[in-house]
Each structure stands twice: as C-alpha cells, then as structure tokens.
C-alpha cells in the first residue's frame, strides 16, 4: 500500500523534530527502521531525499560529545583538502568508538579520495558489519569494486542499493554501465 507523499513528508518532519528531544542517534537508533521502510515504499524523489538526509543526520550523531567534536574536526579537515589529517582524526574516532559505524564510513571515504582502495574497502566492510543498510558505504563499495574491474562484485553492491532504495536511478544506471564494461572484457 502506497502512502500519500504529503503524509510522508509530515512524518519525516515529526521524526526530525525528535532530534531536539532525543540527544543522539547512530546506527542503533530505533527511528531508522521506519525511515528505511519509507525508502522502500515510496518513489517520490523529494521524500526519498528528505528521508536519506534524516538517516544521515541520525547516523552522524554518536551521542558522545568528544566523538561528535572529533567528527566535526575530521569533516573540517576533509572539506579543506587536508585528507591525511582527516584520516588521522577519523582514526581517533574509531579508536575511541569502534562501535560507531559513521566513524568507519568517514575514514573509508577519506581513504577513497586518497586512492587507498584496499583501506577504504576494509573500513566499508566494518561500516557494513555495524550497519548493513548503510547506503553510502554500499555505494562506495560498488564504486571501488568497479574501479578494480570486479564488475560482478560492483553489480552486487549496486543491487544491494536497490534493495534499500528501490528507485535509485544512480544504482540502476551504474549496473547498466558495469554490464556494458563486462561485455568489453576479454574472456
């Protein structure tokens, strides 16, 4: 049964309001199940984007002030192009909160930009062990595997994206591109 997009947007607004009541989230937050259900059941692009944004906000909050401060420092370093420094800061996050999936995901992202694909994949796998629905990590895995010409693994990653966000045009397009690249490979 499809739900009215306006009703979903209102529901998302109420979930967002809870941020002022609930002091933290992370990948264990109970609100995530409802948000992922919205991603599954609604093709409205605006609703999808707002839902994903809300999920990211929940994932980002560790509930520990010192970890949240480190996350901000890592983000600032990454935004200013100081990728080595950002990786060091996210490593501190991981050392102090190894159960916090977004610390692993942020370091994976920095390692991706530093072209450390094996390190990034290790961190992605840790992220996904903590939060198997982490669409950002799954997307990164698909990208890296595609760059490494592991087309089957990359396609499987983007198919996993489609299980979480069935209307992801990006995942659909990437699967098609990967299939085309596979056909070009010598046997």
General description of the model:
This protein folds into 3 domains: 5-60, no CATH class; 63-116; 133-187. The N and C termini lie far apart (45 Å). It has helices spanning 5-17, 31-41, 45-60, 65-79, 83-96, 101-113, 117-130, 135-147, 151-164, 169-184. The chain is mainly α and 187 residues long. It contains 10 helices and no strands. Helix 7 packs antiparallel against helix 8.
Quick description:
By secondary structure, this protein is mostly helical. It has helices spanning 5-17, 31-41, 45-60, 65-79, 83-96, 101-113, 117-130, 135-147, 151-164, 169-184.
Name a few traits of the molecule.
187 residues; mainly alpha; 3 domains
Largest sheet: none
User: Which percent range describes the beta-strand content?
Assistant: under 5%
In the predicted model, the low-confidence regions spanning at least 5 consecutive residues are 14-24
Radius of gyration: 17 Å
**Secondary-structure element pattern, one letter each:** HHHHHHHHHH
Mean pLDDT: 88
Coarse morphology: globular
